[in-house]
User: What shape does this take?
Amino acid sequence: MKIAFWSEQPEAGTTFNLAVTACAAVLMHPLSIAVVSGGYHDEMLEKKFFGKTDCFSWEAERQHDLEMESILAAESEEYFAVRGLDCLLRKERREELTELAVKANMRQVIRDKMYCLPSSVKPEQEWWHQDSLFLRMGRVMDAVESYFDLVFIDCGNRRDDYAQEVLQRADVCVLNMRQDREHIGDFYQNPPRYRGETFFLLGKYFEDALYNRENLQRLYRMEENRLGAIPYNLRLQTAGQMGKIKNGVINCMGGGAGCRQGEFARELVRTTNLILKLAGMLA
Assistant: This one.
């Protein structure tokens, strides 16, 4: 089951929105979730959970995953040469993409429940989506999907062929919008057409703004179960910039000191559950 997050414009908070809803889903429900970038070389999603990424910290983290030792020992040369997506793309056969191999090349966000797949270290070029290794991306994504209940894919505001393919194949497309009438009106009245279900999400949301969720539902006759919001929260935005978004979500949902737990948690829980219902994960 794939859920893709995308926006037609930048600054809609797409990556942030994905990160907090994925964390909330795992914290509220007995689900396993993988979070993946919708690009070849894009560390923005990984940085939300781990901050600055580098091979040394990543290698040290993997040392603690004792259950993976046999795999890492057997593939030591390849492991130290490449990691994450790069390593999985080098697998010659689909049979090599076992659950252990896939998870050994992911980083745990919440132990045994939520994993992040690091993107390629190779820079994107105009031809990146035609790279011989990247042509194996489809089977890597299928393998990841087979080992998790849900895969959240961050497409940002990308318009390349691969991102569009992800959106067309997703079971749910979460279209992220800024909270202004002109943008919302155009986006909602003329949305992209995808195979899966469509959900509209307001990022950096202010409940007391003129175009809040209730007014937008009335103005554009939006279905209540297809419009969500992630309120603006300075503390959580800062946590995301520091690579501590998981702790920030736990703090907010648990009513931590200094957090506007009420409004933020209420909207986050509502939005997350609506997305999961569209994906068929909740009754």
